[in-house]
Amino acid sequence: MGFPACKPKSTTGTKFYNLGEAPESGSAYHGEVPKYSIVVPFHNEEDSVTRLYDRVKDVMEQVGASFEMVLVDDGSRDRTYRLLEEIAAVDSRVLVVKLRRNFGQTSALAAGFDHASGEFVLAMDGDLQHDPAEIPQFLEKLEEGYDVVSGWRSQRKDNAVMRRFPSRIANLLMARLSGVNIHDFGTTYKAYRREVIQNIPLYGEMHRFIPALASWYGASICEVPISNPAREAGKSHYGIGRTFRVFFDLLTIRFLLQHMTRPLHFFGTAGALSVLSGGVISICLLLHKLIVRADTFGAHAPWFMIAAVLILAGVQLVGIGLLGELQVRHFFTQTHRTPYAVDRVVRMRATEEGMLR
């Protein structure tokens, strides 16, 4: 399987708007809207908070553009939130979002994205396993016109059995099922155009599938290699058990990408095949009864049961598909969303000579 390299691109990025809506700046930011927003979720990372802030601040000040840092405390039970408060008290570019409890990484990222105000949004972990010195290469690719820039841990230093091997298998499956050919879906270290990330609903553990969901909207995606240093403090919050959850997420994302706006195509096809199979069995049993005039029910009772179950299951599947269609219609009607993504809107204008251009 081949993977795309990041090549220079047009500086015009894909725009995503809901019907009748325009991009809005984050309500939590006051003053000049920053160009970049750095979103970092934390959960019990008191040993990393201050060092990560210092490193990110130094890198972004060297970049030279306006920026903000959206730091999310995901229900930490140590001193993480207190340290974040101290940082926010001395730096107006820092916005701290405290969640009521530990909702998980995806929810923490969603909270950060919702409060980010920048034109470009970069997300990274708070455990110092993402090197802030690599931020400029993400920003460079966004400036070239890419909508999503994903990090690729090409030289992982995790445990081979517990982390690297399961991750490699999961990434291959994700690339095959989603059609997005990148090496590393699992890392949080990614950068997005604001209008892209705002149109992707995040829940469960869907943050790793953002590139796949963004591709559904027609976003342009590339990846850049990143380092994967060992944790400097604390311990990992992930184990081998997460691999099994990823498998179910894969099934979910496959269904969403293929049938998100047409669930009846999936359930209706399965239901129709089930009803057809049950009908064929029933007709064969009826013909046998009429031709042979034997005790068909007594001799072929299991087949009667199979036919009845197939017909009933088929009707139920079709019903589920119809209910799914109603839900989709309700979603697009009530929220005024459109099942397409607008790249740009061009209007002819008159020049001084009266010619249209």
Structural write-up:
There is one protein chain. This protein is α/β, with parallel strands linked by helices and 357 residues long. The protein folds into two domains: 36-259, Alpha-Beta Complex (Spore Coat Polysaccharide Biosynthesis Protein SpsA, Chain A), CATH 3.90.550.10; 263-334. Helices cover 46% and strands 11% of the residues. The chain has eleven helices and seven strands. The protein has helices at 49-63, 80-90, 105-115, 135-144, 160-178, 194-197, 210-216, 241-259, 263-292, 296-299, 301-334, and strands at 36-42, 67-73, 94-98, 120-123, 148-153, 190-193, 221-226. It has a seven-stranded mixed sheet, with helices on both faces. The longest helix has 34 residues, at 301-334. The protein is elongated. The two termini are 44 Å apart.
